Amino acid sequence: MNNTEIKQLSYTEKYRPQFHFSPEANWMNDPNGMVYFEGEYHLFYQYHPKGTTWGPMHWGHAISTDLVHWEHLPIALKPDEHGMIFSGSAVVDWNDTSGFFNGQPGLVAMFTHADTYPDSERPRQRQSIAYSNDNGRTWVTYEGNPVISDESITDFRDPKVFWHKETNKWVMILASGQTVRLYTSKNLKDWEFASEFGDGYGSHEGVWECPDLFELPVDEDSNQKKWVLFLSIGDDPRYEEGSRTQYFIGEFDGETFTNDHTPETTLWIDKGRDNYAGVSWSDIPHEDGRRIYLGWMSNWRYANVTPTKEWRSAMTIPRVLSLRTMEEGIRLVQKPIQELQNIREKSIQMTNQTIIPSENIVSNIQGNTLEIIAEFEIGEASEFGFKVCKSKQEETVIGYDVIQQRLFIDRTNSGKSDFNESFVGKHEGDLAPYHNQKVKLHLFVDWSSVEVFGNNGELVLTDLIFPDQNSKDLELYTVGGDVKVKTLEIHTLKSIWGK
Ligand code: FRU
């Protein structure tokens, strides 16, 4: 697609997400370089500007002042003599430790340069930096690149940098084969190996990619804090889930991460299929205090063949992370950012409704950009929930299985699915009811995705769907008996694109 054609795109193309970030045109994968600086949230992303499948990687760029509405900016980083620009991160160098900014603060990005070893097909991945002293508008790649290389490791990528104030150093976490490595630096240019984590821990059912490491509060009313390590694992045909993201909880002393869990414990950030390579924003102001991340809303299993035309892939909605103590231990909790409330358009609220089988109390509501918040009290029902993007031919079911105590998305009959045989299916996760048999569902439905947050973010499922644009019916259903909806809010959401 040429530039004039791209400019004509209106964000009303078939399957185009209305309130999720997607590139104007062409291919996108991982979010990169997310940083907040001088009133702007930056979102860079793995981008192939010349096609709608993965190709020579650039960093695409967009900015936002509210994490909801995005402005596209020109490509930030392009392949150069060291190779393509793979995933990485960005930070504000507040004290000019790098010396790039004449004593002022500025942005430094750290990413993987990917090419092949001379006269060989063997991939070569090395870490490099670039800096910007005009708020990310233009970037200078550092003349001393690459700043870290290690010939012994082939998969060696996706550096995520942060400032560790207790040790007064930059820390960088990097995927290296089936482990992560941590390095430290005083100036973002010279890096020293600190430690390695991961051998024997968690899931190794795919290549390790895109780590992140950050501290989070545990429970709102305690002073306890823990470190969380995000780690994505690539698609391996032997496992049905495709690519997915796990996390570890533990301690970090500036050099070494210590996992609180047994080696065989594996925790997943999302039990749907389409939330990958998620990492968090750097430098969100202290007064705000949130740790916000988003993921690439796709799966390497079929990412290159999803049925969109002008562009391919979107990001999840931004989500706030925290930790909560549950029966099984401390677990990650995710909530949609509150800024999304500003795109609510029409709203309907109900309280204390009894839902009976084969009656649909929301049959008058139509829409395919919806936010739904419902608090249920389980009665005699064996299953209940919502059917969204529904017509005579198709529906996506977001349901709660009372007997198994599981929340699920069933996209078996959700619309177009013939592009990959593993796309259809039902994806689920454990979710126990809370006080007096309550279950809370918070749903976001867009033109080609569903995200569901169970019990205030204890369990999250994110799935792509490709329904017909006219499949707009909504059903609130129950099976096997009554269920009570204590509170129900349904909001149609405005598009974040256009005028
Ligand atoms: C993850 C990933 C990264 C790599 C990038 C290349 O999806 O494989 O490890 O840097 O994509 O586009």
From TrEMBL:
Keyword Isomerase among record annotations: no
Keyword Phosphoprotein: no
Residue ranges of domain Glycosyl hydrolase family 32 N-terminal in the record: 20-336
Domain Glycosyl hydrolase family 32 C-terminal, first and last residues per copy: 339-491
Signal peptide: none
Keywords: Glycosidase, Hydrolase
CDD domains assigned: GH32_Inu-like (cd18622)
One Pfam family it belongs to: Glyco_hydro_32C
GO MF term set: hydrolase activity
InterPro entries: ConA-like_dom_sf, Glyco_hydro_32, Glyco_hydro_32_AS, Glyco_hydro_32_C, Glyco_hydro_32_N, Glyco_hydro_beta-prop_sf
Coiled-coil portions: none
Family listed: Belongs to the glycosyl hydrolase 32 family.
PANTHER family in alphabetical order: EXOINULINASE INUD (AFU_ORTHOLOGUE AFUA_5G00480)
Protein name, as recorded: Glycoside hydrolase family 32 protein
Native organism: Metabacillus halosaccharovorans
